[in-house]
Every structure is written in C-alpha cells, then in structure tokens.
Records
---
Amino acid sequence: MPVVDQFESTYHQFYPMLWAVAMKLLADEDAVADVLQDVFEAYFSQSQKSPIRQPKSWLLRVALNKCADNAAYNKRLTDMSALNTFEDETGTPDAKYDDRKMIQQALSQLPPKERQLAVLYSEGFSYKEMSEIVDIRFSSVGKTLSRVINKLYDILKSNGYETFER
Amino acid sequence: MAMKHLRDSEIQAFIDGELSPRQANRVEQHLQECPACAARVEEQRAKIDKVFSVLNLVNNPEIKHPHLPIRDTKTRVETLSVLSPSRKKWFGNIASVAAVAILVLSLTFIIRQNTIKEMPGKQIIVRYEIEGEFDANCPITEQNYIFRVYQQ
C-alpha cells in the first residue's frame, strides 16, 4: 500500500525531530508520546483527504498546537521547587529528567510565540521555516530571536544552571 | 564612523547566516571598522552557544520509535493464493458484516475481472475469513479487522 509506505517514511523521518521539540515543551515522556500519536493520526487522516505539500511545516504546526493544549505545557508554577526536590522524592537523581524539567521551566517563562521560536531555533530551522510555522513576519524573525536568546540566557543564568558555570 | 551601528536583528541574522550576500558584506565591512559592534557579535554568539548547549541537552539520539500504529488500526486486506486452516468468526454487528460483504463482492469482482480472460468458463471460488473483534468505542470506519481472501 503506497499510502502507508509514504506515511511510514514521513513518520521515521520526522519522529525524532518532533520528539525533541515536544520534549522541550513538555518534559514528560508520556505527554510527548500522546502528542506525537495525535499528530501522526491527524497527519494520516489529513493526507488521505488531500496531499500535504509541506509535511515538515504541517507536522510542526500541529505538534506545537497539540503541545500547547497539553496539561504539561503550562506546568509553570510547579516551578523551580520541583527541580530541587526531585532527587529527594525518588532517591535516584536522574540527570536527564532534571535537564528536561529545567529546559521546560526556562521556556515556559517566555510568551507563546517566543517559546515556539526558541525550540525551532534550537532544532536548526531556517528563518523562513520559522516564520511559516510560528506565523510571524519573516522580517521580524531576527529581531525576535535576538530578544529570545537574551531572555533565555538571563533565565538560565539566574537559575544557576550548571552548564553556565563550567 | 562611516555608518550606523548594527542593529540586534542584524547581528542575530549575521550569526545565523540569514543575511543576503549584500547585507552580510555590509556587516562585515562595518565590523572591521567598529570594535564595539564586533564585541557585540562575539557576545551574542557566546550567548547563542550557551543557550543552544542547554536546549540541546534534550536531544536524545536513542529515541525509540513507538510501534507504528497505522498498520494495526486500519482494516487490512490480504490476498493469499494458498489455503490455510480457517478460523471463522461471526459478529453480532450487522453493519460490520454488511461492510465486509461489500468488500467481498468487490474483491470477487476484481479477481474475476483479472482472471476470466485467461480462463474462460472456469469458475473461481473465493473464500474469506475475518479476524478481529468489534470495538464498541470506535466508529464503524475505524474498526480493526483483518480480512483474508483465499482463492481456491
């Protein structure tokens, strides 16, 4: 079945990238898996109705929206205290988990579009792609990114994240 | 100084390689004359590196793809030319049986169309079997059945 084969190659091509994007925004493996399943289901049913010309942009737009709908996305005020107590609660420090939480917390302090932009930027998207996916003017991508980088830098620094002291 | 200092957006786009060749040229010229802007570029570049290095802690090269769901959730049609032990299942749901019956008819028709020219007068017998359970939580279009057609 060519439709399924095509779907499968899209799936394998974009899954890792979408995973990273969603993980930065949600910091929760289950939530990420849920979101990505929804995204690919939507992709599959949409692609049966009419062909999707730019799968990458389409998938990201849907993924970002579904992330924003997810409960984990707005866990902002569970806040830095969650980070500090995490090791105590489980007894086993999990560096990877801490990193994810840390990133999600830092990003959640940005306005929605800046937050999405930061994630896409870190995934190496071009200005053109970012302006399409996040729906901001191409000419203001550079300015916004400059601001986002500075904000994030300050947030991460004030959180005393270890990478900054190395 | 011959020209204005660089804007933040220009510095950012310059670092990201998003300026047109002409703009980039202009920025490079300015940077040679202006140590203040050159310092700003270096400062921004360092910030980008730091932010990047933190954000990309999340990137995990060993992400395991979950099993692709589509293969299971859509109705599959397998056409086999060999007989295998059959296991017949019937369902109370009339709609699902009706849907299957339509499939059978259309498949039978297709197989006839494809073979009848080569074997005039020969009767083609097709047998089918269905695997799967009716899931009351899904609409009829999303039921999970495996539908096998055997040509004898």
---
Amino acid sequence: MRATERLPNLATAIVLAALVVLPFIVPATLASQIAIFATGALSVAILLGAVGLLSFGQGLYLGIGAYVCGILVRDAGMGLLSALLMATLSGAVLAGLLGSVIVRRHGVYFVMLTLAFAQMGYFAVLAFKGVTGGENGLSGLPRQFDILGLSIADPLSMYGFMAGAFFVVFLLVQRIIASPFGTVLAAIRENEPRSEALGYPVARYKTVAVALAGAIAGFAGGLHVIFLGFVPPSDVELEMSQRLLVIALIGGIGSPAGALVGSAFYMIVSEALSEIWPRWLALIALLLIGLVLFLPGGLWSAGRRISALFERKTAHD
Amino acid sequence: MTDPILIADAIDVRFGDFQALSGFSLSVRSGTIHALIGPNGAGKTTLVGLLSGTIRPDAGQISLHGRDITRDALAFRVKQGLVRTFQVSSLFAKLTVLENIFLAVSENAGASHDLWRPAGRRRNLIERAEGILERLHLIDTRHRRVSEIPYGEQRLLEIAIALALEPKVLLLDEPAAGIPTDEVGVLLDAVASLPPDIAILMIEHDMHVVRRFATEVYVLVHGQVLTVGPPAEVMASPEVRAVYLGSSGQSRFAGEAHGA
C-alpha cells in the first residue's frame, strides 16, 4: 500500500545476511545470545513501534516462558518444540489476561501497571520456591536437545537454531505490521479516539497486540532456557524488562530489524566493556541518552538516513 | 415523508451544575439534510458527543432504526451506520491518505482481523478506497502523508472516511470550518454529491451552506431547541435573530434574509 513497500524486503535481506555473518564475527555463544535477546526485543518493538504502548514489564512474559519451558522439559519430559510452543502460549495467555485489564489505562498509568505486574511476577517466583527453585533458579535440565532428529550439541548448531527462531519471529512481526490488523495498530498509535470513531474496538485490538508481544517474549524465554540449560531467576527480574526495552530503543523501534541491531550492539558492547569496567551499564545509559537526543529512530534508522542521503546525492548527479 | 431513522427524545446532559442540554429532542429522516445552528455555548458540541456516543445523557433516550442505543458505545454505533466527521480534522497524520481511507474501508468490510495477508495486496479493499478518493478528487494525493496535504484536502478526507464507513446517518460537524475560501467550493460539491438516501445532520455556522443544503433547520439555544423549520422561515424569525446578537451573526443573517 505504501510507496515504501520495497523497504521490508531490503530489511529482510540485510537481517538474513547479518544472521549468516554474525557467528564469523563473534563467538557462537555470544551470537546465540544476540539472537535470543533480539527475539525478546521484538516483543517490545511490536508494542512500542506498532501500537505505541510502552511496556516496562516484558521480562515477566519472558520469565514465564522460561519457567514453563524449563519445568516441562525437566519434569514432564517434553520435547524441545512442544515446550517452546507451551512457553509461547503461556506468555500469550498471561499477557492477554493482564493486558485486558491494563489497556484501558493510558500513558504513564499503563507503564506503571506493566512495571507493577512485572514486580509481582518476580516476587511470585521467589515465593513459590518449590516450583521455581527460588533464587537458585531451576536446574537439572538435559544438556543436549534434539530437534527433528538433529541434535543441538555444539555452539554453532545452537546458534543456527536460535538464529532460525529469531528469523521466523522477525518475519511474523513484519507480516503482522503490514497486515490490515497492523494498519489498525498504527491508527491506534496515531490517533486513538479517531480509531474508535471509525468503529474499531480499540481496547480489544490493544489486548491482542499485548498478547502477541507476550507470546514473543514467552518464546524468547524458552529459547534462553534451551541455550543456558537452566532457568535463571534473573530472566523474570526487572533488569530483564529493562534490557529488552533498552535493546529495542537502541536498535530503533521503527522497524523489526532494529531489534537485531540493538541486541547485537548491546551484547557485544556489554561483553567488551564488562571485561574492562564493571560499571559498563553507565556507558549504555549515556549512549541511550545520546540516541534519544540525536537519533530518536535508533541505530537502524541511521542506516536508512545514510542511504537516503546517498540516494539524494546520486539523484542530483 | 419517511419515518425518522435517528431519534433523540427528552435528553438531559449535565456537567456538574451546568445544564448542557435540557429536554432536547430531535428526529432525523433518511434522504434529508438537517442542519443544526446555534450560538457558541448552545450545546452543539455536547450534542455531537451525545449522538456519536462519547457523552452519556443523564436522562432521555436515543434510538437508531427504532432500537435503543442510549448506552451503546461509539464503535458499536458506527457499525450500526451512525458516523460522524470531526470539526477539527482528526486524522491519522503520519499515515498516507490511502491508508487513512483504507482503515475505514477495511473496518467496514470486517477485514481488519487479518494478521497475515499484506494490506497492500487486498485489491478489492484498495480499489474501493481509491474509488472514494476519486469521487472527492483526492486520488492524486493518495500516497502522501496526511500531515503534508493542505487543510482543505484534509477536510475532504474527513468526509471521504465517513463515506467509506457507508453511513445510514451522517453527522457533519462543521464541515466547512477552517477551510480557505478558495477551497470551499470543492467541499460544497462533496457535500452535494453525498448519497441521496442517507440521513444527514449538519452542524454548521455558515448560513450560505445551511441555506443551500438543508431542508430542515434546528436552532439550539442554551441546550434547548428554540425552533425547527425550513431555512428561510427560521432565518426570518425575529426570535432567532435576537439570539444572534453578535454583529457578525447579525449581518450574516441580514444578508441571508434579504436574499430570501
């Protein structure tokens, strides 16, 4: 529908190329984490980018996905794919339930509610030690997984799985944004009362968007558990919500490709800086301030700006 | 004369101590253009909110097609064919003209639950959207963002969106407000070309517009209907003229009355 319809294809090609190149630039385990947190950041991107809803609590859904996946694999002997599916569903259901309550609140109240629910989730994990392992997390998961007969044993095949998983979610998000449903989400972001006046039940659309974002976060939580081989309680901590938000903002929420850029940047910088200086998060904070002030579209938009400049130049020539 | 399609009966709306509408009644018929005029503070904005569903009355009943809709939400009323436009253009500024109209077409066709197929490939919906844009001479601007097109065209797009929702009853909230004089003509043509079978209630200040289109005029003063009648009769009424004490209103009226 837009004149810019070619752009998603270009973004897809760049993302695919980046995923292929990534394990050759950084260690495969780091590359896996980049793919996992990029997936998690997509859940922020679809909310903030498409509907304009700022969630400070996506860690809650990533956390429930992680615990559900961990418990099902360890105690129910469930296979990898079905456990991931259940992690996704649990994120969707929890987010859908909480979402139906909070989408009627706007602005700062919405943000505070996402934060409050995320905190409740964290304390619930600590309180139900018997199920979650409390502060020790959930350990004793198998160290090796099979998928459709192939075993994920070495870091590179692990990365292949994680990159594939991210790419599928990336395509899905891109597809949803371009669909009529996605156009309605954009309309709600731009002008909520007007969307209502067009006959759209806005609260229901927002709830579905929140549930979708919860599903993506839950899926990412499952991926994280498969990667680690145990469930760390930090998955459901506030820091996780924060990290997903920061990654999405650094990368840029205008395109789902921003999630990968943001995650790669965040993970590589934190890996490199944490060896030199334990307070490396301060630098991330500085960077975030700089981005918000000077490049509100995030790193992904920088590429687009440069290419726009370049096109203008060639057009002049 | 057809039966009324939209009826408001003995409506009271209070905001604290302020009585915005009291004992207000109105009936709107298919195939007729009704106009509602009144000085500032008469309750016109409240009325639009009341009929479209953003304001709940303290007393009274609203019915559409003989069905009580007093407690029904805005979105539901739209689905029943009661559609409004906005006095101050209320559009999706960062979306393109085509996307704006697509949203209305897609809602009307019930196609917006689709999460999968790209919106741009829904040929039938796109064609309907483009057809409406063609009718309102907006087809050439379809790929531009709404924030980039002139205000007059934004007003036209308001009407285009309303038409895309296939209204049975259309509330036009000051359609000509804020349009530069040289662009008013296109808008009036658009109003003139509205489907003849729908019921229209136009809230309008401009007496030229009222005279040209309306067959029945309501005069609203202090939340009550002062008088109802054909435009010429209403404008000649000394009672109505007394209400418009503002000199601009007076002269506007005087010119019209002489013209009649």
---
Amino acid sequence: MRASLAASLPRPRGALPAGTLPAGIFLVLALLPIVALFTGGSYLVSLGSRVMIFAIAAVALDLLVGYGALISFGHAAFVGLGAYAVGILSAYGITDALVSLPVALAVSAAYAFLTGVVCLRTKGVYFIMITLAFGQMAFFTASSLAPFGGDDGLTIAARNTVAGFALLRNERAFYYVVLFCLLGTYLFCRALVASRFGRVVRGAKENPVRVATIGFDVYRFQLATYVIAGGLAGLAGFLLANATEFVSPAYMSWQRSGELIVMVLLGGLGSLDGAIIGAAAYLLTEEWLSGVTEHWKVIFGPVLVLIVLFARGGLLGLASALVRRLGRG
Amino acid sequence: MPSSLLVVQILNGLQLGVLLFLIAAGLTLVFGVMDFINLAHGVQYMLGAYLAVAFYSLTGSFLAALILALAATLVFGLLLEFAIFRHLYDRDHLDHVIATFGIILFLNHGVKLVWGAAPLSLPMPELFSGSVKLADGLLYPVWRLVVIACGLLVAVLLYVLVAHTRIGMLVRAGANNAAMVSALGVNIRRLFMIVFGFGAMLAGFAGIMIAPILSVEPGMGDTVLILAFVVIVIGGIGSIRGAFLAALLIGLVDTLGRSFSVDILRLVMEPSPARTVGPAIASMLIYLLMAVVLYIRPSGLFPAKGR
Amino acid sequence: MKRLVLLAAVAMSLGATGAQAQEKLKIGIIATLSGPPAVLGQQLRNGFNLAVKTLDGKLGGREVEIIVADDELKPDLAVTKVKALVERDKVEFVVGPIFSNVLAAIMKPVTEGGAILISPNAGTSNFAGKECNANFFVTSYQNDQVFAVSGKHAQDSGIKKVFLMAPNYQAGKDALAGFKAFFNGEIVDEVYVPLNQLDFSAELAKIAAAKPDAIYVFLPGGMGVNFVKQFRQAGLAATTTFLSTFTVDESTLPAQQDAALGFFGGANWAPDLDNPQNKAFVAAYEKEFGAVPATYAFQSYDAALLIDSAVRQVKGNVTDREALRAAMMKADFKSLRGNFKFNTNHYPIQDFYLVKVAKRPDGKFETQIVKKVFENYADPHAKDCAMK
C-alpha cells in the first residue's frame, strides 16, 4: 500500500521525499499556539483556527476540482448548511456537539446528494452554473428564515459542549480540535485519492469515456465524491459556527464559493497540501494587506491575474519549480 | 389583479429582459467562440456606466457621452483582450474564472478610487425624460420604452450580422468549431479580438442605457453578471437566438415573480409569512428555472456546438 | 524603612498611571468601507477623525491612535476584524458599525473581549431591551424611534392610506413596525423587497395601482437612490406624498439631486439644526471632505465627544471600567444635536424631527428641519432591559 501511494502521486526529480511538506505544515500548525504564548494574545490562535477551518473546506473542494475536474461554484452552501445546523439546534437549546456535529454532516451530505444527482448530469460550464444555482437557492432560503435572523444572521449563545464538557470554549483547546479535524480530513482525502476509488475519479477527469468502457459507472463515483466533499464542507461549517458564534446567509454566498475556488487554485490544483497552503495564503494575505491599506483589493486582483498567467500550478507549482531550479544549480 | 398592473409588469419584464440580452449576447459569443468564461463582463457593464457619467460631466450632452463611452469601452475591452485574455484561451476554465475574478476585484475597487464610493447619477436626455400615460394615474417612463426599443434594435442588428454577413458566418462557424475555422485559413486571432471587443461594447452599451434609471455604483455589475450567466446557460452557449429568448424569459419570470409571488402565496398561507417567503421564492425562481431546463436539456435550449 | 517602601509604592503606582496617561489611547473603528454602502462607512470614519482633529488629536487629554477596519458588510469577517482590534491591537473602544447585522455579530467578541462598543449608527431593538449590555453604548438612536417619526407625522397630518416598503431584513421589518405603531390609518400594502434590489419597476406599478395618499419607505443606500429616481420618473411624486427614513439623506442626495426635492424624512438631526457646535461641525466637515455631512458623520463625531468627556472624567485612567462606564453614562458633553442623555439601556433620549429635502443656494442638497415631532423621546424597549 505504501508503495502504491508513493507511486500514484508523480514526484518531480530532485524533490523532497513524499510527506515532507504535509508533515511540515502540520508541525507548524501544531506549534503555533505555543509561539502565540510568547507573542502574547489569543488573536493569533483564533486567526489560525479560521485558516484551518477554511483549509478543511478547501481540501474538500480540491477533491472535486483538482482530482475530479468538477468545478463546483456552490461549495460555500455546504459550509453554510453545516453552520446553520449548529445555529438552529442551538436556538432550540440543543448545544452538544455529539448531536450538532452528526446533524451538520448529515444535512450537508444530504444536500450534496440531492443536488449532485441533478448537477452531475451536466458537464463543463453547465455544471459550474448549476452548482451556482443550488448554492444561491440555499442562500436565499437562509435569508428568508425570519425566525433565525434571516439576512441579519443568528448569534449563537455559546460554543457547543462536547459530551457536556465546555471543551471548545477555551481558544487553545478549540484550535487543537480544529487541527485534529483538519489532519483527519487531510489523511482521509489522501487515502481516498490513492485508493481504487480515487483512481477511478482521477481517470474520469482524464478520459471519462475510457473509464466507462472499463466498466465503471463514472456517475456514481462522481456522486460519491460530491457527497463526501459536501459532508466535509459541512464539518468546516460546524467549526466555523463555533468559531464565530454567529451564522449568517453570507456564509453561503456565491462570492464565498468563488473565494474557496481561488484558495484551491492558489495553492495548486490536485494537491491536497496545496489546498491547505492556498487557504492559508489567501486568508493571511487578506489579513495582512487589509491592515496595510484599505484599498488592498486593487493590489490583490492583479496579483491573482499574474498568478494565473505566470504561476501555473499555484504556489506549490512555483515552489517546486524553484526547488528544481535550485537543484539544477 | 388589474390589467394595467399586468401590462406594466410585462413591459418591465421586457425591459429587464432586453438589458440582460445586451449583456448576455457578448458573454455567449465570447464563450461560444473562444470557450472563454469572462466573469469580467459584469465590470465592463459597470465601466460603461461610469465612463458615461464621466463624459457627461465633460461634455454636458448625453449623446456625446454615449458615443465617447462606447468608444472607450471598446478600447478598454480590446486592451483587456490583448494584454491578458489572449494568453488564456488555451487554458482551462478554472484559469479563466480566477483571472477574470481578479479583474473584477481590481475594477470594483478601482472605480471606487477614481470616482468615490457614493452612488452617481446620469441624467436622462431631455427628449426622453417624460412619461407616457398607459392608464389612469399610471405613467410609464419614456426612457424605459427607449431601452426596450434599443435592445430590440440591437437584437435585429445582431441577427442580420450573424446570419447574413461573412463575419457573422465566421462567428457562427467559430462557435461551432474554432479549430476547423483556423485550419481553413481564417485569422482566428483577429476574429477573437473582434468578437471580444464587440461583446465588451454591448455590455458597456447596456450600462450606459441603464445608468439614468439605476444608480451607478461600485459592484453594480455583480448581480447582473450572475443573471447573464443564467441566461446564456438556459439559452445555450454560443447561441444569440438562445440568449435572446432566454433573456426575455428570465426578465419576465423575474419581474412577474417578484410582483405576484406574495399575492399568489397569500392564496395558500397567512399574509405575514407570505410577505417574507414570497420575495425569497421570487429570488430563487430563475435558479429553479435553470435547474429544470438543465435537467431536461443539459446543454441549454439552443446550444451552438454539435448541432 | 516602611515609609520609604510606602513612598516607593506610591511613586510606582503614580508612575504607572502616569505611564498609562502617556500611552496612546487606542480606538478601533469598524465600518463598511467597500462595496456600494462604502460611502456610509466613510462618513462614519470621517466624522470621528474630524472630531479627534478638532480636539488636537487627543480625547480626554490622551493622545489617540485610531485603527480602522473594513467589515465589507460580511458579519463573519467583521468578527475576525474586531477580534484583531480587541485581542491584537488591544483597543479600549470599538466605534461602529453601520449595519445591524454586523452589530449582531460583533457584540459578543467586543464586549466579552473587554472593550467598550459604541455604535454611532446601528441600534436594533434587541440590544435596547432584553439583550442590553453594560459595555454597549449608542450615540445614534433606537431604530424604532426614527421610523416612528414618519408614522406620527402621517397620523397627525390626516393622511389616510399609506403604502409601505422596506428591505427584507430585521431593520426593514423594524422600520415598518415603527411606522405602524403610530399610524392608525389604512395600510394599503406592505412590501418587503430583497436587500440590494435596484430596479423597482414591479413595486412602482403596484404603488400606482394602489393609489395611496402617501408612501413610506426605508431604502438605505443605493436602493434609495434608485427608488427615488424611478419614483419621480414614474410621475408618482405629483400624486403621492413621499415619507421615508434613511432614504433621502446627505449620503444619497448627491446622486438623487432634484429627483428628491420636497421629499420627507425623519431624523434626530439635520445639517441646519441651529446650535453653535453643529454649525461649526457642518462647516468644518464640508471644508475638510467637500460633502455635506449626514447622520453617520455627526453621530460618530458625537461618539468621539462622548469618549472625550468620559476619559476626561476618569482622568485618563480607563482601566477602571466601572468608573469609565459611569462617566460615559453621564454623557457630559455638548452633543451636536443639542439635547442628549442616556437612558438606562445606554440608548439616547433625544428629540426627533420631520425633515425635508431642499437645495441650498450653493447648489448642494441637504435635509432641513420642518418641525419637531418628538421631544425627549425614550425608546419603548428600555423597560425590558435589566440594567437600571
């Protein structure tokens, strides 16, 4: 299994052994709260939690976009549904994660299933548009939920308890819970991609006709991927609702879906490490630049264009090109 | 429902439809011929409006502002094509989405820097600023009728261009099979440039025509962009005829839906929830429509490719 | 020996307070500075900055450092930004936001993070009543009150049939509820439009068909700009009185211009309010920013004056929050609107006026006071607030 894992992911010459990058990433993430102890303040920790939450959503999206070539422009809806599950249950007094989490996962996976059945009958830009349509429908439904704040959103009284323990209310403990979820998501997706299931999906991206000829029902594999991606995004939504203690329809807007796609592309398509890096790069750049100038989007926009034009393969592509360039000497 | 209200709403729906057509026409051509997803089409519409306001304050004449703004939008569209989009035609759709998304960010904030964040206004030309009496106490602005008329005129013009001229033939061929057209010795680069520039000009024209009715502000292109994409998807990519029919359909469904949804819902539920659920359903209607159309015909109503 | 230690201790604590007094007073501003409503956030920020400038960069005798954050009208982004202000930048006060949905999101992070939140615009009913908060102060108004102005005026002036319209969110619903609380005539129709809808052709046709005596609308920002223009174009201005709140104000008038002439609004202030501090403010604002100030600007100016008076009262020592809050409650400053005092729920008790759009001799548009509709008006939700 080890051998096939390494063999199925192509390595450029002179690159570091497989697994170094993710190990590095998770090491940095694990040590962050300790560093924050010295720089003083839980702000860094809460920023880190936010980055990791979006990284989970990005990794899930990368399954679809990077490996399956299914560009979903409604991914934010699953995040929002997971968040609203937490919010609505909370409004009814159900505040334990042991209930909220499964509900969040179930709701987003169910929506993914129902919409996936329709969406996956289309291809290319039609697929993009119909996923957008379903995303918008979720958005408008949430906006019309007057008892749950409607457009204004819903404040959650407190974070979920875990089996009765107020574990998540400590900022550092919450951070490690999110990290654990990210690690779990990452390893799961990695295993999925390397498995036979993953090979079928990746094959379908290259040549769906051939895969179908071999005897695989491409549609079912794609639907399964779509549901898994939706469920994982629901996990991100569950964590997001707990992080901000607030849910609003804005979590599901098409602009949010667009931002998720940018994060995936920024890091490098078809590489789960890239999704994490992309999410971090996008959010941290936004954070840093908005502190520098109020007009940061005027800079960020052209940067995106330049990345698309010149940095094919996103940041990871850039990095490995650099490594190769240096390796050659 | 009084019939005058219905008549007015149908006219309003046609006006929205015609506006959507102006924007969708350029979008569907660019997509059909060059296989290029141009999210920046919405900001081209916005830019048309802003340029019209700028030229109006320079010249004081709507006509002059219209002509100058059209020219400027054309130039700007060609510039974008030449500098950036040209290099992206052979990349996949995702690259198009990201690059044009970046352009949206840049321009939405760029216009804020140049013209400020406050909404701006473009006065209507005096000749058309009146209203026409449609029914007792109901006046319909002449300008909206002008917009409908202009849109229909453009539709006719496009039809003539596409169906009866050589360049139109090349465009149709290109939408069907661009590689073949190039192989037949046509300067495909120039064709693309013309298509793109023309599409940009159409979007700008829509922006200029709508500016006297709607306020000109940063981000005004974003909602319209989504609607335009819905139009071209329903209509079928690459098809002007599809865009025209789909645009009118969407304009009517959206307008009539918004005005009568609450009344229709009140037949089955209490007035208070009907008032909040109604607008929500009205907003979703076009997306539901798109989902239904795509379920029945996954490539839209009149797709240009493979016909 | 003991006396030396005592002296040293006193010296150190004095030094500490002194040191704090030399430290800059950090204030965070959270407002919507991008997208169509950016002009409102800009007014908020400009008003505050102008006040600080007029007071020589000091509030309450302490030098001020202002950190501005843009919430982009995204509530969850606002949460991140205010957490940065409170946890990373360690601001003592957060001034903002413009929008009520952002307010709902940031209330907890700011107040539980130890800072004092002053809203110079959003003033929803829940935070005036059951969810009132000791660390939350409002220098604007409670939304219901402003909306009531038009309702009372409609009732008092004999208007019989009114058509209502507002966006489909909490503030919109509050608006129409506030109007109906004082108006006993016939409501011909009550329409909620999607937030940020720009083309009102459908609704205008409904209004024309319904033939009301007056319409009452709450359509902030671009919505108001578009509606006013389209309303005038449809010829309805000749037959229907236009009553509104936040629809024709100094932020939208530059775009609406003549189309809004003669339309009514309700507010707690207008640029022509006749007192010396207001006249000075309006003149200074126009000189510095080239635009007529709206309520967003004057209310954040007042917020700065409020902070100034409170910090001065506690002699620069803001760490004693009890004392600081008490000082803020006193509201011992000359508000631009004249009468100002806080109710038990930290919302103001103030006068409200009917205002009308007029064109100034210099060509700029502003709202002008027609008559006072409420005097020393306290909001109706204070009784639900636990604070006394």
---
Amino acid sequence: MSQDIPPFHYSLCLNLNTNRPDLQPYLNQLNPILANILSILENYPDTTGEGSLSTNFSKILFSKIGTS
Amino acid sequence: MNRSAPDPGPDGNAPPLATAFVLKIAERCNLNCSYCYMYNKGDLSYLQRPKFMSSEVATVMLTRIADYAQRHRLPKIALALHGGEPLLIGRQWVQWFLEEVHRVAASSGIAFTVGIQTNGILLDRDWVRLFSAHKVGIGVSCDGPKEWHDLERRDFAGHGSHKQVTAAIELLVASKDVEWAVLTVVNPHASPRSVLSHFVNLGVRQVDFLWPEYNHDAPPPWPSGAMARYFCELFDYWYSELPTPPRIRWFENAMKLLLGGRSDCDVLGPNPITDIMVESDGTWEPLDTLRICGNGLTRTGLDVRTCDVEEIWNAPLYRIGLGSQELLSDHCRSCAYRRVCGGGYLPHRYRHDTGFSNPSVYCADLLAVLSHIHRRIAADLEPIRVAVAASASAREC
C-alpha cells in the first residue's frame, strides 16, 4: 500500500460544526477559489470512508461568506 | 436488430455506464493543427470513413442511445458534436439533428444535453442563434495570443486562424444566452500569464488547459519539467493574482481531488473512462485520443445499425479504459498522488511493449504541479486547522 497524501482536510472538515463564530475571521479570508471548490464538494458523497466530506465546513462557508 | 446480450464482465455485473457520447459528425477539418490527435498523430482510420455522418446513421444512433439509457434507467445523456470540425456538416443538418434529438427525448423520456466543440472558423450569428435556441453548449479551441495560436492552428495553406477564432469568441461574449468555454492546448514555451490574460481580456469565463497528446513511444519534444513550470506559474496567477479569475477545469478538478472529492473529467482522477465515440460511419468506438497509440487501434467494427451500445463492453480497448486503475504500474501504486492523477491520462501512459501499465509520460510534471497545488491549499487552510486544533485541545483541558 502506498502512503496517501496527508488528509489535512478530512480532520478539518469532520471536526468543524456550525457553531464556530471564532472561525469567522479565517473563513472570511479564505481564497474565493478554494471556498468555491469546498462548496462544490458539499454535494459529493464521501469517497474516503472517513464520513461526510466537508459538509460542515462548507455550511459554515455558506453562512459566513455567502458563496452558496 | 441484433439484441445479443453483451458480456457483462467476469463478475456478472454491468460495467460503469456511459452517460456521454462523442459524435464525430464531420471527420474532416478546415484546419491542419500540428498536434491534432485525429489527423496528425499517425492514425489514418479517418480515410476509411465518410466525411460526414449520414442522417440515417444519426437517427439509428439516437434510437440506440435512448434505448440503452432506458434499459439502464439513465435519466440524462450528454451528446457532444465533434469532429474534425463539426460545423463543416452545415447548419441545415445540425438543425435537423437537434430537432431529432428533441423528438427522441420526448418519446423516450431521456433528457439529452448537447454540446459542440468547434475551431470557431465558421461560427457566425446564425450558428449562435441555432445553438442558443437549442441550448447547445459551445466549446471553442483557441491557444491564446496570435503568436502562439497561429504557431499550431493553421489551415492547409499555412495561414493562422487566430483572427477568425477571436471573432468567434467576441461573438460569444456578446451573446448573453449561450453557454460556452474555451479549450486551449498548452505550449510550455509560451508565457502562461500572457495566455490566460489574453482570455481574460477577451471576456472568457471558462477555459480548460489541455496537456498535448504524447506517450512513451512519441514523447513530448520539450524537457521534463517544462509543463510543470507552465502549470505552476499558471496556477499561481489564476489562484491568487487575478481579481475575477475564469473557471479552469483542470485546476478545479485537481483541487477537488486533493480535497477528497471526485473529478468530473477523464484526464485526472481514478475514474473509469466510460465515454463512447460514434464515428461518421456509425461505429461505436472507445476514447478518441487513444488514436495516438496506434493506427487503427480504436477501430471496433461495431456498427450502430446492428449493435446495441452495450456491445462496446466487449471491445478490448474500451475495457482497458474501464479498468485503467487495475493496470497501474508499481510506480503509480506506491505514489501518494495516485488517487489524484489516476496514473495519468490513459493515452499518455501508452508504450508499445508494455501497453498502458506505465506512469504517464508527464508523471514528473504532474507530480510537481499537484504537489504545488496541494501545498498552496494546505497553506491557506492551515490557520483554520490550527484554530480548530487549539479549541479542541482547550476543550480537552
């Protein structure tokens, strides 16, 4: 088996929830292209076996920076 | 009609189902681009085919595709009008075909979307009106500024086509009710900034950058690393410098894959290649860019007049496309980025003695570009990751 790319994003996505106003400054400053990609990913089924992918994260993005 | 059941494969299940068909309605072109995989990369099978698809073939083909979609409960099918140069077949034929698509859609309940890929030479207001009326998405091929575009995209007299394609793009910019995008084949000697700026200045909102079609038997004429330099510089310019960046499909797919999502194209990611071509003579064939791997390699002899769509499942080359991940080389299997690049675009993996079990001829460049994008994304997400980790740590305390 190969070593996979470090899944920095998985733990990030899975640990976020919608009640994190402390993250708003970071989210507001996120690169808009990256924010858009994350919003697209919300519609994807999990392909990693690690649970729902980026759903919570992109929900926060939508509510904070209005990119939905 | 032949209704013999195609071989479903060793496990008895149907393979991944095609939902996109590329229709070679014109198998000649009014340009003679040096890098063209249809006509200038060694495949001569086009000489045995009619210049244009007949209405008889098109009618039977649409019925076959609709029947196939119904059998497999596929609600939507994408049709791409392709060539050669598809506009050479004439507006009257295309109008007839689009009306035929509507008729088949109404009778079958299948939703068809139609797109067309053109070099733009013949595109005028009447064409755009027709495509607008039928909601046909338009792709225009353009390689950027005149000095780069005209280097490769010339007519048979050697004249560049930049002036005409620019007029076509300007027409599309002014037409608010059509969906369109630009396809550009990368020349790594060009400045990626000047190419992308050219498109932005023209008003292009969607563009894809294609890696030229080479493989291990016919490798790229530039040194390894040239494509990586081009794509890394292009990414940085697109990602962080342009105030209103256009969509770039290759980068968007790379980012989606790096973030754990899926690609919606066949040039990146581990997806099986399911798209089916229909040649002007009415044969079902696998991926057209595989023509660079050998003269006549894509020929199947499977005629729409006698064969259902599913019979292409028995074509060896089509099966290779479906199972491309099973053929990955040991080098690819041990690579951290294999799920992102998918081992490289299938034609780029080919070598006459080892087939498709090779890393892409662009492997080193792909690895450099993808790891560059990975680093950029990770850096942008790092403050959030740190904040999340810090708050989690505080909760534990």
